[in-house]
Amino acid sequence: MHHLVSRLRKAAVAAVAASLLAAPVPPVAASEPGTLVVATMWEALPLSMAPRRSRFFNESEILDTLIKLDYQMKLIPGLATSWERVNPTTWRFTLRDGVKFHDGSDFDAEAAKFSLERVIALLPYASDLLNIARMDAKGPLELEIETTEPFAALPNQLTDAITGIYARSSFDAEDKFVKPVGTGPWAFVDYQKQDRTIVERFDGYWGPAPSLEKVVYRYIPDHNSRALALETGEVDFVEHLLPSDVERLSRDAAFKVYVEPSAGLYYGAFNAGEKSVLKDARIRQALNLMVDRDILVKAALDGIGKPAWQFFPDDFPWVSETVTPYTLDLAAAEALLTEAGYAKTDGKWVKDGQPLTLRILSYSSRAEMSPITETLATLLQGQGVATQVQMFTWEGMLDLVKQGDYDVSVVFWTPEMTGHPDLHLKSQFHSKAGLNYQFWVNEEFDALVDKGRTLDAGADAMDTYARAQQILQTDAPIIPLVHKVFVAASSAALDGYRVHPSGFFYNFKEATKK
Which residues does UniProt assign to the signal peptide (predicted)? Predict the structure, then answer.
């Protein structure tokens, strides 16, 4: 009780301070009928198309994608009702009839073409993701897409939130982004900087109408304050809880707690370039053999997560039994470090008089990153590897990583998000990938990933990606740490909410509030 009172006092002080600094914002009570108030860890920034933030448009269902993923991560119709690959580089999509944008304009093939062209022009990541050479509206409801190379993964990539379809009115006369106008069940209404984004039910939605009338996304970056906002009735729903909050809220009948596996992997990205000792693959392999992921999950996350001994989780359909997961093997790790020229002296690994020291970077805006990073460092220290941990903002960490000024960066990505392995293997680990800040080059891996994206699902594709995944294990540019388990909580008044395994989709249109 004393702890709760202390937190309430801190929250009250913070609220007073915020009220002195910010312009008045109309209050929205969680108890208002028909309104769901959601506390988020990230600020939505709905007036920006920056990659991470633009996913909010799909998370919140302001925008629809052409293709969607069901709760088994299988492709299902979105704004496209069917699709076929008419030759190795050409896909044809039949679009949904009778769909309106929030501004009343019609959705058709020309609108889809315009939107995807704007997304590709404004977001470099989308260009790499989609590989589109040209698009043609073959009819009002028929869109043809030619890719720059045979590209079997295109339908999966079109489920990525970044490919959401915008109305022309989302952009000004100079094609600059203004605001999100989509076809989804929720229409954008208002944005208050550093505070909230409001969406309202779109009664012209092509699918089943939501029960709720309004959803308010409150930005509450402090992890303790988010949970407290739920406990005090300020919000109805809160995501990204600290493990300690999960346990406490689970014991209280006033709340519902959601704990489900979802796309996402916490891993240590190794600097395999010339600026780090980790350019030596033997050291990278040794680190993978000496970190006990079971202990890491228990110590850092109170057991809320799945120990990761390989890149993809077991239930990802592209995982092959031929891929060998790491296991805890301290003797093998010591043999590798000895082979690399290190000797263990007084419990510390030393080479040429210098201790094996790793500079580990991460970022604190995501609730789980600090405990995972600190626990990783502690486990390495226990095996004689010195560590220097530094926490930054995401942008601050990334600046150093791009310069190669690090040994390990602990990051979180969602490699299973589109249901296809191409998404992450190509964009993060291919030697020519724009996001490969690890300076890792493996020509055999590159060739396999390049080949895999040309192949339709089947034995050849499965074997190709299995071999690529095995190279990730053996050449070890990363150390997989934890497969994500999504955690959220709501008041007991919320019904119908389900955790979507993609990790990027709230689906509040199916929710009701008593």
Answer: 1-29
